[in-house]
Target: Flavodoxin-like domain-containing protein
Amino acid sequence: MAVVIYFSHGGETLINGEIKKLDIGNTAKLAQLIGKQLGMPTFPILAAIPYPDSYDQTLQRSKLDAEKLVAIQPIAVDLRAERDIYIGFPVWWGTLPGAVDSRRRFLAKSSTHFVHMRGADLAIASKSFMSSSPMQRLRKNYRCAGHE
Model:
């Protein structure tokens, strides 16, 4: 079986140079679309201490959390039982958010990444994810830029 897991941030975000409020984050929208199109369940990756709605406060915290393993809430599916995992995440500060750090238990036989980014390098983000998961086979990367 296959599942979609994703880390996303709702609240304020920067769109075309303006701070706007989103009820649901861009990566969450994309995850739900993929899940619906492929008939797979979707599960969020939630930070144990939620990120604030404020764009500026989230920016400050995400910078402090860069390169750090951020505590997460339990994911509502046993990922060890899954053959394929579709993993969605934004790129923050040129790398993975700490909630999606590859030291996690996101283990499956293969994974497909879909990444929401503004000007970041998809190859660097996926390499960062895979570096600590040598047993995992990356099937495909998909990039969604900006607020698309």
Observations:
- The chain has one domain: 2-145.
